[in-house]
Design brief:
- It contains 9 helices and no strands.
- It is an all-alpha fold.
- Helices cover about 60% and strands about 0% of the residues.
């Protein structure tokens, strides 16, 4: 993986707010970070400046996305790779405003590829071992309750996991999720409903 931009010295390590699993498909946690997406104006910025602004504002949020959709210990590498790919393909974006959606898509795609590689590797080993979220970055990113949730999310398919994370933890609209995952809105609804049903069942079982 290729690191693109170093973490600014003045930026604090990302700390996730407590986000218990949603009780209903129609509710989403309030997230003040989403306001940054609306106020960040990249129209007049050149590529280097625009990417630096995106990194400052959205790095922590993208890192949390990467962890929740399955990147685990590789989350930082995946986010760095996403910024690298954005830098390479900046001129191919329809508009600068499409950059954040592109970053989310790359993070989701890389996480899905990582999960596939792990499944293939595990078929050729006698003992499966769980990869623990052990870096200092991840210890501040996830509290105990959220680590339990990550374990439960692993039981879902990649598509179901991504749909739920983008909907309830990233607070995206169905149309934005469809754009990020490169699927139809109808498919987003199906993955969300099935994922929520399975996640609820798993969490209830764990609570017993």
């Amino acid at each position: 993986m290729r690191p693109l931009l170093p973490r600014p010295a003045h930026s604090p390590h990302p700390v996730a707010a407590e986000t218990p699993p949603p009780a209903e498909a129609g509710t989403a946690p309030a997230d003040a970070e989403r306001d940054d997406e609306e106020i960040l104006d990249l129209r007049e910025a050149d590529r280097e400046v625009a990417i630096a602004r995106l990194f400052d504002v959205h790095y922590a949020r993208l890192l949390r996305l990467a962890v929740l959709v399955g990147a685990e210990g590789d989350a930082e590498d995946l986010v760095s790779e996403a910024f690298y790919q954005l830098h390479r393909r900046w001129e191919k974006l329809a508009t600068p405003e499409a950059a954040l959606s592109y970053l989310r898509s790359i993070v989701c795609n890389l996480a899905r590829m990582r999960i596939r590689r792990l499944k293939v590797a595990r078929r050729h080993t006698y003992h499966e071992r769980e990869r623990m979220v052990s870096s200092a970055e991840h210890q501040v990113l996830l509290n105990d309750a959220q680590r339990e949730l990550v374990v439960a999310l692993r039981t879902l398919s990649s598509r179901q996991r991504q749909a739920l994370v983008l909907r309830y933890w990233m607070d995206l609209k169905e149309s934005e999720i469809a754009e990020t995952m490169k699927i139809s809105v109808g498919a987003v609804k199906a993955h969300t409903a099935r994922g929520m049903a399975k996640l609820t069942s798993v969490m209830k079982e764990e609570a017993r």
